[in-house]
Design a protein that fits this description.
Length: about 450
């Protein structure tokens, strides 16, 4: 049986890993496409395609890594060895991701960038799938998981703040003969910090005793059979994929909007910093809201806020950095509830599935979720790059009025579509406020009785 309550020290010790992971993730999310187009000089459509292909390849690895982690047994537990021994290859691959070889051009350069992206994504999967899977084993309390999700997002925001605040200064400081060299040295500095954190997480975090001795008997087909009746998982997948395929466009548009529409590239750093700082305030608020109204309703609340803000952005001309920055900060506060909610909901689907099938497969669930999430983010990035090229974007050149209007349209209509589709999918999520607590209690009775017979979870 897992622990219901964790000390604050253990929560921080575990979620500190999200600072390390998000050093990498936030850099890739915010700067990598911009690095491809405006530093390396790859066309926007091709850059988006690189990002999309690498994300899909990465996503295909996640369920397999999840099943491998589920089967792993060592004196350090199932998941912790991957955190400890995978952190150095992950750091090295991150530096490689931002290195532009001087001897490659044209197709060879594109293939190199794709190769390094895939290598990085593979190393990232090896570390982060086991790490995130620990979330479901540390506690079976839904409220505790909301708190852990909040701490994870706080460290994620701190990592984003670190990346946003230091990237361009480091790029300028170490740029030397070219901008790409500055990105390489910046990546090396960030990798050193992240690599040093993972052993601390390994040392502080302890895995609880095994719940079910026969989990290792499942093959890949068995995992799918155990997951198929899990309606909560599939509803969460549908909502998350819909929301993130479309909403990723707004996040990736910030650098382009400030540089080409507002013609004030340095102001983008201020806006992104403001968004990160506001997130530190918004996350505790959303944790409280989630506990008060339930996770499903918190998703709907975040969706309503996002739709309202998009309507404002569509109605008025945001032609100054200050106004745009204020809107982005409010956007960050209002929509972070979705990100908090899906990470908090995901562990709950583990017990939901266990109740229905008698099988507990948290690492496979987390791996498959990461698969769909990464596909969504990759497709979203690819779609953004393709649309950017379609509206006539040319890197490091003045944009036409049609291109400027097109960039704004991308920022409005794609996220709006994602909010609508995600909200519709969330209507089918079966775990309401109080449902998970009843599931955990029922599972405890079964374990006490020595029974794992499936039953309806409604």
């Amino acid at each position: 049986m897992t622990q219901h309550r964790l000390s604050t020290a253990k929560k921080i010790g575990f979620t500190l890993g999200d600072y390390a992971s998000n050093i990498y993730w936030q850099s890739v999310s915010i700067f990598l496409l911009f690095f491809y187009t405006d530093a390396v000089g790859i066309p926007a459509g091709t850059a988006g395609l690189i990002y999309m292909v690498a994300s899909i390849i990465d996503a295909l690895q996640d369920p397999f890594m999840g099943s491998i982690a589920d089967r792993t047994r060592s004196r350090w537990g199932r998941y912790r060895p991957y955190i400890l021994f995978g952190c150095i290859p992950l750091g090295l691959s991150f530096v490689l991701l931002y290195w532009r070889p001087p001897f490659f051009e044209g197709t060879a350069l594109v293939l190199w960038m794709l190769f390094t992206h895939v290598v990085f994504r593979t190393a990232y999967t090896i570390v982060t799938i086991p790490y995130t899977s620990l979330n479901a084993r540390l506690t079976d309390s839904s409220d505790e998981r909301s708190t852990i999700a909040g701490w994870r997002m706080i460290f994620g925001m701190l990592a984003a703040l670190t990346i946003i605040y230091f990237t361009f200064p480091l790029v300028t400081r170490f740029g030397g003969s070219g901008t790409t060299a500055g990105f390489t040295w910046a990546a090396a500095a960030f990798a050193v910090v992240a690599t040093a954190i993972y052993p601390i997480v390994f040392r502080i975090t302890k895995e609880p005793p095994e719940i079910q001795a026969d989990e290792t008997k499942l093959d890949l087909r068995g995992y799918w059979r155990a997951l198929a009746p899990n309606n909560a998982f599939w509803a969460l997948i549908a909502a998350t994929v819909a929301a993130f395929v479309c909403s990723v466009a707004l996040g990736k548009s910030v650098l382009y909007y400030f540089k080409y529409v507002l013609e004030d590239e340095p102001a983008s750093r201020t806006a992104l910093i403001g968004m990160s700082i506001s997130g530190l305030i918004a996350i505790p608020m959303w944790v409280w809201v989630t506990k008060f109204i339930g996770k499903r309703n918190a998703w709907f609340a975040g969706t309503a806020v996002g739709m309202g803000l998009l309507a404002i952005f569509a109605t008025f001309d945001f032609d100054t950095p200050l106004v745009t920055t204020i809107w982005l900060i409010v956007w960050s506060i209002g929509t972070l509830g979705l990100a908090l909610t899906f990470w908090s909901m995901l562990p709950d689907t583990v017990e939901y599935g266990e109740l229905k099938t008698g099988q507990r497969t948290e690492s496979f669930i987390f791996g498959l979720f990461q698969f769909f999430l990464k596909v969504a983010l990759g497709v979203g990035a690819g779609l953004f790059g393709w649309l950017l090229e379609r509206v006539g974007y040319v890197a490091n050149a003045p944009q036409t009025p049609e291109t400027i209007a097109g960039i704004k349209d991308i920022m409005i209509w794609l996220p709006g579509l994602g909010f609508v589709l995600g909200g519709l999918a969330m209507l089918f999520y079966p775990i309401r406020k109080g449902t998970h607590e009843a599931i955990v209690e029922e599972l405890a009775h079964r374990r006490a009785a020595g029974s794992a017979a499936p039953a309806a979870a409604e």
